[in-house]
Structures are given as C-alpha cells and as structure tokens.
C-alpha cells in the first residue's frame, strides 16, 4: 500500500506553449498556402494587387463563408447540412414573393431571415426531435426547399427589388470595403468567440468527439444541435439576402451546388468531416484561399469549371498529403 | 492427472515462440511463448493491459508480430491475414460476440467460406443444411435461417462456436466467453468445452474468474506487463499463487474501508419501475453510506441507475433528495440536483477521447468555471488540477488528450469529472472494471474518503470482494427486481451469490 | 400481417400500388400496360445507378460522384462516336463501362488506401470529373447530328416488345442480384457495412470490399452514361447535374440504411420505381412538373423516418413478464 500513498504529483497545465502548438497547426499550413497563392497571383497578373480588384475578389467567397462558419460548427458536432443552398433559394423566393406584395426593404430582410430560420428549424426538428441522420434529412429538405421555390416560381423570375435593397450585395461600408465583407469579418469574429470562447462551443466539441459521454456529462445534446441547425438556416438566410441583392433577381435555380462548395471550404479549413475538431480561423483562411484561387484564375481567363477541378484536387490532396507524409515518415523510422 | 501428463508430452497444435510486438510508445509483448495442446484447455491469465488481447490478435492474423515464430503442428508459418489464420485452423470467439446482426444465423456461421455450387456461386440450400447440422452438434436448437439480431446473447455464443467448428478449427480461442452469460448458460458452455476437448481441439481460455479457470482449464499461462511470467498444469497451482504471478506481489484483499458515522437519509427512491427493465425498486440512501448494488450482468442495475439520472424515463416512481421530491428528465438536471452517475462503459459513456484532460474534467462544471457563458481557462485548470491531484492521476500535462492515458488513469479523470460537480450523491457503476490493481486501490481509498466527508455513495459492482470490502449495505438485483438486502454484518459471499442467481434463500 | 408490414419491400410495393390507384382515379390510362412499360423504361437509368449506389451505401460509404462519372463517360462515348462512327456500339459501351469502373476505382482507392472519408473523396472527384468533361469537350455540346444513327438507336430498339434500354436494366438487376446474393464479394458488402470490426475477424478486407463497391458503382455509372447520352441524343458538361441526389433518394426510399449493412436489390429497384412513377404521373394528373422536386424531398424524409422506426433497436428486456408479451 505504501507506494500508493506518494504525495500527489504535480501535473503541469501545458507542456507545449500555445504558440508552439499554433505553429504546428493546420491553420499555419493554410496560411503558408494562402500567402503562396497571393504571391503567385501577384506575379501572374498585374491587375491582382489593385485594391478594387481585390475588393471584387471578396465577393467570390463572402456569401459562402457566412454559411461555412455555421456549417463548421454543425460538422464539428458530427452532423452535416446539405440543404443550405436550397434554403438560399427558398429565402430568395420568399423575398421575391414579398416584393410582389409590396414589401419594403426592412420587411424583405425580415422575410429573408425568417425563412432561413424556419428552414433551419425544420431540419433541427427532424434531426433532433425524430433522431434521423442529418445527411439523409438534409438531402430530403434540400429537394423540398428548392422544390417549393420551383412550385412558387416555375420558370419565372422575380426582379424589381427596391433600390435600397441593393445595398446588402452591392454597397460599400468604407472605401473598398463592401457591406458583405464587413459582414464576413463581423461573423468571423462572432463565430470564433462562440466556438472557442464559450461554454456552447465547448459543448459542440464534446458532442462531436463523443455524443453519448457528452449527454452523460450533462450537455443538452438535442438543444445544442437544434440551435446549430437554426444558426445554419439563419446564416443561409443572410447569404440569401446578400446574393439576391447582388444579383437583383431570384430564380429557383439560384445558388445551385453551393452546399458542396461550403462543405469543401469547411473541410479545407481543417474541420474533420468525422466531427470533433476544427477551428473558425481555419475556415476563414480556407475562404480566402478559395476566393483568391477563383479570382486569380478569373484574371487569367480560366473558366470557372476548371477552377472547380482545382478545388476538388485541393480538397482531396490537403487531406491525403498529411496522411502520405506521416506514413513516409513512419516508414523511414523503421 | 495421468491424462494431463500425456497431453503435455504431445506435440502442440500451435506454438508461439519469442513473440514481440510494439506500438508507438508501448511495448505490448516482449518475447512471450505459448503452446496449445490438442484436447486440452489452456487458461491465459493476466491483468488488463498484460498483453492478452494483443496475443489473440497475433494468433488470429489481425496483428503481425515484430519478432518471434508461430508454429502450427511443428511447422513454422505466418498469418499475414485473418483468413490465413482461419485456414491454419485457428479461430476466436470474442468477448462481445462480434458477428453480424443483420445476416442470417447460417450465413454468420459460413461467412467467408460458404459452400459453393455451380459457377462458383454460393449454394444456400447446402449452406443452411450444413448450418443446421453444426448447430445440432453444439447442442443448440436454433433455426439457421432467422436473423442473428433475433437471438439472445447466449444463442449468439452458440452461433460463434458453430462458426468455429465450421472452419474445422484445431485451435479455438475463447476470450471471456462467460462474461455476459447466466448461470445456466455458463454450465452449458462448460459442457460444450468438454465436448470440444473430447474432439481433440486445443482451447485457449481467457478469463478473469478463477473459479471457472479451476473448473475448466488443464494448463495455465500467466502474462504480466507484456511478458510471460509462469506456466504449468492447473493441478499443480493454487489460486493464491496465480494471483501472485499475475500482480507480481502479494495482494491481500485489503480494502481501505473506513468506519463512518452513517447519518440521515439523503436519497429516497420509491416504487420505481420501467415497462421492460425493472420494477418495484424501493430504498433509502443515507449520509456517509456506501450502498452496494450486486447482481449478475444484465440484472438491470445499470438500467435503473441510468433512469435515476434521466437517461431513460421510468414509468412510475418517485425520488426524494433531502425530503424534497425531484423530477429529473436529463443528466443535466441530475447534475444540478446533485446526483451524478459515473458510467460503466468508460470509453463510450465516460471519457471524451479527443478532448484534453482538463476539458473532460470541467465539462459538467462549466457553469461554475465560466462567467456569463464565456470560458475561463484559468478556473478550468485550477479545478482540473485540484481533482486530478486528489485522485493521484499520472499524466504528462492537463492539456494532453485523455485518449493517451491508460485505462486506470482515464477512469480517474472520469471520476474527477463527476466529483468536481460537488455532488450530494455519487453513483459509481463498476468503478474498477478493467483497471490495474494500483488504480483500483486508489479508487477504493478515494471512495472511503468521500463517504468520510459525508457524501452518499452507490456502488454498482459485480465483484464480490469489492462489494464485501467496501459496502455498508448491499442490495442484490435479479431480473430487474430487488432480490435481497443485506447489512454489512450479515454479508457472506454465499448469500450474495444465492440471491443474485435466485437459488433459494440462504438459511 | 404485422410481420409482413415490417418487410420493407412489401411496404414499398403497397406504397407504389396505392400511388398507382390514386393516379388511376384521376387518369385511368396511366395503368395501361403500355404506359407502365413506358414508365419502367423511363426509370431504367435511375435503376441501374441505384444498384451501384446501393452496393456503396451497404459498405457504409457514399458515392456523390456517380452523376459526374455518368456525364464524363457519356461525353467520352459521344466523342468516340462522333470521331469514329465506324466503331461498333457494343465496343463503345464496353469502353465507357471500363472507364466508369476506372473512375470508380479512383474513389475506391482513396477510400481504401488513404482512408479518406468517402463523402470528402466523392465530393472532390465530383468536381474533378465534371471539370474533366469541360477539358475534354472545351465546353462544346455534342448534338444529335454528330452521333451515328446506330449510337442513338440502340436504347430504343425493340426486343421482344420492349426497348433495349429496359432490357439492359433488367440485365443489370439480375447481374447485381446474383452478385449480392450468391457471391462472396456481394455478401462481404453486407458484412462490411453491418459490422466492419467483425468483418476483419472473419477474414474480410474492409477496404478492398469498399473498393469493389466503388468499381461496381463506377461501371454502372459508365453504362448509364452511354444510355443517357444516346437516349437524349446530346452530350454536354452539365448533363445529369444533381442527379446523384436522386440516386441516393431512390436508395433511401428503397430502405437501404445510410448507416450500412441493410438493404436489398429489390429495395433499390422499388425505390427507383417509386420516384419514376411520381415523375411520370405528375404531368398526366395536371400537377406542375415543378412540384416533382418538392414531392421527392418529402418522400425522402418520410422514407428515412419510416426506416428509422423499423431499424430502431429494441430496449433491453430484463423483466421476465415483459419477455412473455
């Protein structure tokens, strides 16, 4: 028994300083990639470094990134929401419908946000209330939400948004900084704080790593997940307002395929698709990378679809390369 | 005795020599040897983490050894895949029957080596007929065409054994086969093992229960810390000697039980029932008391405890804490009320692998450590440091992933997590299951300390020594009901076993 | 009866029958044999694809790249035909089936050898395969007049009263049925998805089994690629865009569990037919074809709710009296 009664050992809080850990992180790798792409772009095109051009470039990713912040939390919690692009479509359609009924700009914002929240609530209820797998539920609501847009709109389009509505997608807060970019910065901070600095964020990580143990530990799993889907719906609603304002029109095919780009952005940002890990700064960097690649290719007159090949290769290789690298290292160690 | 000596002179069916295996940071096996003889049962004994399961995985082709040789019938071989091991006649029946719930019984038996007919296609008629024959041979009355999920745990074991026979195995590995079986089913298993022995199979029997080792085994091999520390004939050894080999020192069953003045009732449970899991649960828990819940596995103890903290809903019943009626609908509410449950399945329900130690500890206490919903890391580290030190946790840092700790240290983190909520009642479900002896003693000592401080403890345990050593009072459950209540003074192992198994009332 | 209702295939047959009855009340001509044959023919491509997706989902994976694979193979078939009209059509089909299987095997290799989550792999290859069509075609369409008559005629050719397209899907159903029920690799699909851990112990290589499932889904996508392009007589970058979700929907409706290990050929076929009947019935009963998407979305949600109820694990039964009930 004597050896069991040693005086308690002092366990240090941390072995690695936070700084040295950050250096080895996924985010610092992304930062290097982002800087490299920035440098390559500046060499490849003389137009790249123009502030207004750079400002234009941000429109490539701001709307998707807004959704990606909430999606990151959803994926960290071990779920997924594939219906976000359809929520954009339904929100946009609802706003278009409201315009025909004479709604003014504040009313349109309420309709857009409300539709997004409602869609998020439907997803949340089906997933947490009935306990259904989110991937299938959101494939279903993806068809349902966009399907409703098609029922309402058919092959028509809504235009005729009030002039003041154009601000959300086309307005500038100050100099070259657009309203959308300001939103992007604002929500990047909000979601960083929410995920990394609050009890709620800790609960999200706990659920993603071990949902059962989190439940046993007093985490209200159902409530947290419901809120996450609600937030994703809300962010899709905000993105819908921006996109609709920028395009000035609504078609039922608006934002088709955006859900895959959003998921790509999140995964590229270092969020594990299996849940449990990932950061908002990583997603922010991924958004910049995707935006700059799109813009750089655009300046070089490379068609958008070729860009998508690049994103696809990037998605797979950023996950594959670390695996291959660590394997090679292990082989050398033997 | 005569038979024993002849088997030992026989050629082993399979022999491992000098087997080593390392994982990053751990030496799981170093130069161990093991020989299994036809018609003989060899018990493999060792604490958790001694390397038993690694050895089984090497024997069945799941892992490749770093060094050493495997001989089958004297010939040196390799098992690069599980299939290769199966072809060599080695098969394993695992702790939790690892078979396929959605497939038919017959297919579970023949998956991977189904009889083929024309064009090499699977011949289902023949497959079902062969399965029927095999099930008859092991004495199980099971329709081979029904889905496995419709069978009980004992019958699933029979299917697993039929599978072992179907590949005409010469070596059968049984990894804690009785862990989830009832008394009657265990005896049926013993009979089956006797039959397998008579058929000339070499059997490796892994168990923690000494009574069954002495009942069923002919030979023993003891592992400790990845090495072999002893082997021989069961007839030549005593239980004490085996225990000594296992732990490497004399361990008298000393429990650090401290006498505590038992105070007023804290928790009162009355008329608790659930449609399928338990009924008529009534008891009182007092201040400073350790109340043991004994029973066989599957008696409904964990199910009842989980309904107390709101994981499942009881259909009727009332809980009073300090005389006030409580309604608990979720673990969060239970924690608020001061009732916490340290679950049995550490990996699944307890530790959150992937999160650092300090975050595991503070998860249920975040309300306390945070301010207005915002994390305060300094408070978290302080709380985690306090409780992990009190439990004598061994770790490099509090920032380390809890998954990198040994089972015993993980359990300390899990217990620290619950204590940090400063509960009034703590329910410990199999608190020392699967942890090393050192950690066990630390947990027991701490339990005594808690009771001494006036905490009320419920300890669910299936280990009689632990129950007898630690509990002030014992409630025995059987088939979802209370089957006996005993004061510490009147406790005997026999009374507990009889009540749990439903064998008359002890006179 | 209660047991019968638990059988997913029978439940689906009843649902389809109810659907047909409801349609018939509005439009009696729908159940005319000739029309039903037309509906089946129209659903053939979806059936072929759903069979492949079923195999992948059974192994606990998913293939989001099937529609992109189809489009790429369809484009290659059309380009071969446009450049070398003399090459016999069966050879063209063989080439694109092989190409499809090759593209599928890329998915399979990434899932098997690098252990990248299937949803990430196929999300990536989806965009890569689509983009490759653009690189091959420079964004141009291949129209009906550039294709040989034989190329366009094959799916339409009548054989014993039914078009070759229908026959090909029947052939695919039969082949996949035999594969799934009578061969070790087919049974391994179920084992790997049902309990990957146990599959290892029974000597099944989980990764390799998944690889085969992806090869199968790829090969079937290749076949569907030729059929799609020849049937609609046009090939361009965006054909069948978004169709991957219809395929998954057909599987979900057919009772194939997204968690793996549960499903059947019958389920995949019936799930596809359910969607096919709805799609073909909408115009004749005067519901806007625009409603189709919303209806299939609703059906997916209902189907997954029903699946979840039948798959739900029963709680532990400990009390003796509860056991007797």
Describe the protein.
The complex is a heterotrimer of chains A (334), B (507) and C (325). Chain A is mostly helical and 334 residues long. Chain A has a single domain, classed as ABC transporter involved in vitamin B12 uptake, BtuC (Orthogonal Bundle). Chain A has helices at residues 18-23, 26-44, 51-58, 62-76, 84-100, 105-129, 134-153, 167-170, 179-197, 199-209, 211-216, 221-247, 258-268, 280-299, 304-333, and strands at residues 172-174, 177-178. A two-stranded antiparallel ribbon of chain A has the order 1-2. In chain A, helix 2 (26-44) packs parallel to helix 14, helix 4 runs parallel beside helix 9 (179-197) and helix 4 (62-76) packs across helix 10. The longest helix of chain A is centred in the last third of the chain and has 30 residues, at 304-333. With 507 residues, chain B is an alpha/beta fold. In chain B, the strands form 4 sheets. Chain B has a 6-stranded mixed sheet, sandwiched between helices. Chain B has a 6-stranded mixed sheet with strand order 16-17-18-13-19-20, with helices on both faces. Chain B has a 4-stranded antiparallel sheet with strand order 2-1-4-5, with helices on one face. Mean pLDDT of chain B is 86; it is low at 1-8. Chain C is mostly helical. Chain C contains 15 helices and 2 strands. Chain C has helices at residues 2-6, 8-26, 33-58, 66-83, 89-113, 118-137, 149-153, 164-182, 184-194, 196-201, 206-232, 243-253, 265-284, 292-311, 320-324, and strands spanning 158-159, 162-163. In chain C, helix 2 runs parallel beside helix 13 (265-284) and helix 4 (66-83) packs parallel to helix 6. The longest helix of chain C has 27 residues, at 206-232. The mean pLDDT of chain C is 90. The chains are: A mainly alpha (334), B alpha/beta (507), C mainly alpha (325).
| Cα shape of chain A | globular
Largest inter-chain interface? A-C, 47 and 46 residues
Shape of chain B: globular
Beta content of chain B comes to 15-25%
The total of beta strands of chain B comes to: 20
Annotated CATH topology of the largest domain in chain B: Rossmann fold
Instruction: Please identify which CATH superfamily of chain A we are dealing with.
Output: ABC transporter involved in vitamin B12 uptake, BtuC
User: What's the CATH architecture of chain A?
Assistant: Orthogonal Bundle
Supply the helix-strand structural class of chain A. mainly alpha
Q: C-alpha Rg of chain A, in Å?
A: 22 Å
Number of helices of chain A: 15
Question: What count of structural domains of chain A?
Answer: 1
